[in-house]
Design goal:
21% of the residues are buried. Helix 3 packs across helix 8 and helix 4 crosses helix 8. This protein is mainly α.
C-alpha cells in the first residue's frame, strides 16, 4: 500500500487521482499583495544601513555609479510584473502542497494553512530552486561569494514571506 507523497503511481498511473488547480477558485488578492513583497523587502534589505553597503562593496560600485543610466520607472514596472508571475507560481505551489490523497483514493485538503507552514515551504522553494539559479549565475558572472550570498539571503527571505502570506491568506 502506498503512502501519499511516496507513491508515484498514485499521481502518474491512475488518471482519477490527478491533482488539478482550478482557476475559478484562485484568490488573486493575496497574489497581488504578495507581488509587493519583493520590492518592500528589497527596499529594507538593500538599504545602506542594512546590507546595501556590503552589497555595493561586493559589486565594487559606489552609490553614484549605480545611479548612472538607471531608469527607476522601467525597473519598478518590470519588477512588479516579474513579482506577480512569481507570486502566481508560489500560490499554485502552496495550493498543491495542501492537497493529498487518502487511502480510499479521495482528494483531501490539509487544514494546516498558516503563515509558518507557508514560510517553511517558501524557504524550501528558495533553497531548492532560487539558490541554485543564483549561485550558478553568480559564478558564471564571476561575482564574489559575498555578493552571491547577499542575493541568496534576499530571495530566501522574500520567497518565505510571499509563501507564508499566501498560505495564511488561504
Amino acid at each position: 500500500m502506498c503512502v501519499s507523497y511516496f507513491c508515484p503511481s498514485t499521481y502518474f498511473l491512475e488518471p482519477p487521482y490527478k491533482i488539478k488547480l482550478n482557476m475559478d477558485e484562485m484568490n488573486f488578492i493575496p497574489i497581488l499583495v504578495a507581488s509587493l513583497i519583493p520590492m518592500t523587502v528589497g527596499f529594507a534589505y538593500y538599504h545602506k544601513k542594512t546590507v546595501g553597503s556590503a552589497w555595493m562593496e561586493s559589486l565594487g560600485k559606489t552609490e553614484e555609479e549605480l545611479q548612472e543610466g538607471f531608469n527607476m520607472a522601467l525597473v519598478t514596472i518590470v519588477g512588479l510584473v516579474m513579482s506577480f508571475l512569481m507570486a502566481f507560481l508560489i500560490n499554485a505551489l502552496v495550493e498543491i502542497s495542501h492537497r493529498d490523497i487518502n487511502d480510499a483514493g479521495e482528494l483531501i485538503f490539509a487544514s494546516d494553512y498558516n503563515f509558518g507552514h507557508g514560510a517553511f515551504h517558501g524557504l524550501l522553494y528558495g533553497l531548492l530552486f532560487a539558490m541554485p539559479i543564483l549561485v550558478t549565475n553568480g559564478m558564471y558572472e564571476r561575482k564574489s561569494w559575498k555578493n552571491i550570498f547577499i542575493n541568496v539571503g534576499y530571495w530566501l527571505i522574500t520567497i518565505s514571506l510571499m509563501s507564508g502570506l499566501m498560505d495564511a491568506w488561504n
